[in-house]
Specification:
single chain; alpha+beta; 2 domains; 17% strand
Amino acid sequence: MRTMRLLNQSFAGMARNKLRAFLVMIGVIVGIAALTVIVSMSKAANRKIMQQINNFGPTAMMLFAGGGRNVPGADPSVTTLSLEDAKAIEEQVRGVTLTCPMINRSQMPVSYQDISTAAMVSGVASTYREAWDWGLEIGEFFDEQDYSSMARVAVIGRTPARELFGEASPVGETIRILNASYRIKGVLRSKGAGPTGGDMDNRVLIPLTTAMRRAFNVTSVALIRVRVGRQSEVEPVAEEVRALMRERHRIQPPNLDDFRVVTPTAISALAQSASGTLNTVLIAVTSISLVVGGIVLMNVMLLAVTERRREIGLRRALGGKRSDILLQFLFESMALTTAGGIAGLALGVATAVLMARWGGRPAEVSWEPLALAVAVSLAVGLLFGLAPARRAARLHPVDALR
């Protein structure tokens, strides 16, 4: 009963000074809104990072031609990797289960009748499906006859299939790549976003022999995908691959590597770095807003103590305890910050939803922001409301009634 009475008195005090209460709540509202956005975006970003790592392959790594860059990607002008490198890795590095050499050409024109689009065109080895753990939605993959005869056949991803054929089946149809005709044998299962956020489904696969001898006329490969048996072996195997490539390419310090090895750990670090900057800014905004809100709260409550000296003195003279006065002012402080926290939570959830829907930023609303908003709001009210509450409780009844 005592607690309910003190709560009622606290809410009555807020109702008497609505404008003052709103000014106190503004800082808390902004801070809690920013905090809610941070938690929602961090949760979604972590989920997206795990999804991207799964799409990349937790037991795989990529060996790219060309060194000096941390960002994954193959440069078609670099010719430092060969089919012999892929064979050496598979035969000499312990823990490697298979390799898949590839050639990539991004944003190549692909057309069907009078419909055109742009997609990544990749020449791939026969181990592609196992290397990427990537099955077919319909149709079939290349067979040995396709590789040995350098056949002009293709397997396409869901994006070009949708853009060129709509809902119709593309299997058996003929598309044009680099002014040459390719018969579609199958459609890849959808995978979604890649490690760097790109569309993994926007690709067309052709046999590696066809790509090297007929389409692109090259003798080198752009990248080699390497699979290992267990996730714990990825980093040790990556070091062995680096050592083998330095030996094969005769690279001695201080010369730089002419290749790059990208592992799931590097992909995760890259993705977390990209989202970390925005989170840092939002955390700074949150901290500043909450501190400002707390300072405003403390000053307003100190002013309220001065204005309500007679009320405090009367309550003490009628038998009110110091603890009652202390709790009443603390409850008022926490009620103000909690109300601001609830309003900030609603604003933060709305902002996160809008950012996810129209801003292109991942966000995931869950129970964590609610619990965190309430806890932080109560903590701000308690911390910054303690000094005014103690001052009110220490007033002597006689002095307060003068």
